[in-house]
């Protein structure tokens, strides 16, 4: 390769990155040490030398957590997780986007552990303007403690899609024009935490954390954050430019393949859906429950 072409490659690279900075969208580094900081108990967080792999530990002394340096408004997050093997009852691993404001917006994955041999529950939730109570729960179609699987969130102005190995397990559509809450103004940080939730997590709190079976360790790797970095101006993040690809029309709803997979999950794997629990809402289900799901 001649000097000219090397320098033109460098120039293109330079401008591509400049454009990315100006528009605020980011493809993460893949290095936990670079994109995140530990927010709870550094000595319960292990990171591999190359930064691509991290574990969170829970023992009698403490749980652990970390959070992204940046905040994001819309984008796509992918993260591979291997859950706590064997006995994990009472533990909760949460991976979530949160705005941390009093009128909090939040998009949650929560993995609820179990006694040895019994299935984990994957709970998802969406908070909008401080209102939560939108839990859904599924049993996974594989043992999530045996191998790494990819858990993803696509979040744009039209929908939030939770995916497991690219299979959409939950869709939360933007029905704000019909009065339903939807996270669409507040930037959110990406966080992960492992903690003792044994007052409620496993069989409604019946199975407790058994410290003699600990420490409890969950593993995370190969994350990717492709999202609009918050720089104080929502217009940048709402624009449907090619940099903000997740805002493009084809990501505004599930495609045919995704709909087929989604219906399969709904039919065979959902064990709790707040929209099917009118008692909890004194008979008056939240508005989005009577609107199209996907
Ligand atoms: C989990 O249980 C299996 C079988 O009981 C055992 O062989 C394995 O060492 C245990 N793994 C851990 C991480 O404790
Ligand atoms: C744990 O196993 C029990 C018995 O199979 C099941 O009812 C429950 O849903 C499982 N998961 C959790 C988190 O409680
Ligand atoms: C549907 O969307 C998924 C995820 O974006 C993509 O991998 C797949 O190729 C799409 N399929 C069709 C038929 O468009």
UniProtKB/TrEMBL annotation:
Subcellular location field: Secreted, Cell wall; Secreted, Extracellular space, Apoplast
Glycan-carrying positions: 114
A cellular component term, taken from the record's GO annotations: apoplast
GO MF annotations in UniProt: hydrolase activity, hydrolyzing O-glycosyl compounds; xyloglucan:xyloglucosyl transferase activity
Listed InterPro entries: Beta-glucanase-like, Beta-glucanase/XTH, ConA-like_dom_sf, GH16_AS, XET_C, XTH
PTM text: Contains at least one intrachain disulfide bond essential for its enzymatic activity.
Keywords attached to this entry: Apoplast, Cell wall, Cell wall biogenesis/degradation, Disulfide bond, Glycoprotein, Glycosidase, Hydrolase, Secreted, Signal, Transferase
Active site as annotated: 106 (nucleophile), 110 (proton donor)
E.C. number: 2.4.1.207
PROSITE patterns with a match to the protein in the record: GH16_1, GH16_2
An annotated GO BP: xyloglucan metabolic process
CDD domains recorded: GH16_XET
Highest taxon listed in the record's lineage: Eukaryota
Span of domain GH16: 1-220
Main location: secreted
Annotated signal sequence range: 1-24
Homology family: Belongs to the glycosyl hydrolase 16 family.
Its biological purpose: Catalyzes xyloglucan endohydrolysis (XEH) and/or endotransglycosylation (XET). Cleaves and religates xyloglucan polymers, an essential constituent of the primary cell wall, and thereby participates in cell wall construction of growing tissues.
PANTHER family cross-referenced by the UniProt entry: XYLOGLUCAN ENDOTRANSGLUCOSYLASE/HYDROLASE PROTEIN 8-RELATED
Designated name of the protein: Xyloglucan endotransglucosylase/hydrolase
């Amino acid at each position: 390769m001649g000097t000219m072409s090397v320098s033109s490659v460098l120039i293109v690279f330079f401008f591509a990155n400049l454009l990315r900075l100006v528009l605020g969208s980011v493809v993460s580094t893949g290095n936990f040490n670079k994109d995140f900081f530990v927010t709870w108990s550094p000595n319960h967080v292990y990171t591999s030398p190359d930064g691509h792999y991290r574990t969170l530990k829970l023992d009698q002394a403490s749980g652990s957590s970390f959070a992204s340096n940046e905040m994001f408004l819309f984008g796509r997050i992918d993260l591979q997780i291997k859950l706590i093997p064997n006995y994990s009852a009472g533990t909760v691993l949460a991976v979530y986007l949160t705005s941390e404001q009093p009128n909090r917006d939040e998009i949650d994955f929560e993995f609820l552990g179990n006694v040895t041999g019994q299935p984990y529950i994957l709970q998802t939730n969406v908070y909008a303007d401080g209102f939560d109570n939108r839990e859904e729960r599924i049993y996974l179609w594989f043992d999530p403690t045996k191998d790494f699987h990819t858990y993803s969130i696509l979040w744009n102005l039209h929908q939030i899609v939770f995916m497991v190995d690219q299979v959409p397990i939950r869709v939360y559509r933007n029905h704000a024009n019909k009065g339903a809450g939807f996270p669409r103004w507040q930037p959110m940080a990406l966080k992960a935490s492992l903690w003792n939730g044994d007052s409620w997590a496993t069989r409604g709190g019946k199975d407790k954390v058994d410290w003699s079976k600990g420490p409890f360790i969950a593993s995370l790797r190969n994350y990717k954050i492709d999202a609009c970095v918050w720089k104080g101006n929502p217009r940048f993040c709402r624009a449907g430019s090619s940099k903000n690809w997740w805002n493009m029309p084809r990501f505004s709803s599930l495609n045919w393949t995704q709909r087929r997979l989604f219906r399969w999950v709904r039919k065979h794997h959902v064990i709790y859906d707040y929209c099917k629990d009118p008692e909890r809402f004194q008979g008056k289900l939240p508005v989005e429950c009577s609107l199209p799901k996907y």
